[in-house]
Design brief:
This protein is mainly beta. The chain has one helix at 5-21, and strands at residues 30-45, 48-63, 65-66, 71-78, 90-99, 105-112, 122-127, 130-135, 139-140, 149-155, 161-167, 177-182, 189-196, 205-209.
């Protein structure tokens, strides 16, 4: 994937900020955290709604500490998707939605890596407080498809405090993970919308703004 010029400039600024403008030790050190996120996935079957329990793994890299108004980067790396063959022939229109650090301003982004994507096209969109990665697919069931890592360059808030990232989503209408799939028996097409289980919240990263 190609890194935008804006992100390259932003990362160059971040390097300067991390070494000269921030007056506390370890501000530029980023840590990677692996998380397993429980999800709830409502599906329709024969006129009834069933909620499936699902979980996905994510690795997120973010600095532990940053200065106010400084530039930093957060990376979101979801585990490969591998649709189960007993329920899917293929999936497409895959979407990952992330909650960004509150009060941080998006300066740029890039998509890095990825494998077994075929002809899929990956795009990134931003909504207030959120980043969305979409992959058109299709992806064959029973095979790993690794969607690229999203790297987002951010400007820290002007106020001190802790900022976090997490998987977005509150309902089937507002999913944090989603795909469209074809049933291997009936060949019917349906959507699997998933959102974080509110009873088991997971924070992907924590950054202290000083």
């Amino acid at each position: 994937m190609r890194t935008s010029r804006a992100l390259k400039r932003t990362l160059a600024v971040a390097a300067v900020v991390g070494t000269t403008a921030v007056g506390f030790s370890g501000s530029a050190v980023a840590a990677t955290t692996s998380s397993n996120v429980p999800l709830l996935c409502p599906v329709e079957y024969q006129g009834q709604t069933y909620v499936l329990n699902y979980a996905r793994d994510y690795k997120v890299t973010a600095p532990a500490n940053v200065g106010r108004n400084s530039v930093f980067t957060v990376s979101f790396d979801p585990a490969p998707i591998n649709p189960r063959t007993e329920f899917n022939t293929k999936v497409w229109d895959v979407k990952f939605v992330y909650n960004l650090p509150a009060g941080a301003k998006v300066l740029g982004y890039s998509l890095v890596g990825g494998s077994n994507l075929g002809n899929s096209k990956q795009t990134v969109e931003f909504e207030p407080g959120r980043a969305i990665v979409k992959a058109t697919g299709p992806f064959k069931a029973g095979e790993d498809a690794d969607v690229p890592t999203l790297k987002v360059a951010l400007r820290a808030p002007s106020a001190p405090g802790e900022v976090t990232t997490s998987i977005a989503g509150t309902s089937a209408a507002d999913p944090g993970f989603r795909w469209t799939a074809e049933d291997p028996t009936t060949f019917e097409v349906g959507t699997l919308p998933c959102y974080p289980d509110p009873a088991k919240p997971v924070v992907l990263s924590k950054t202290q703004v000083h």
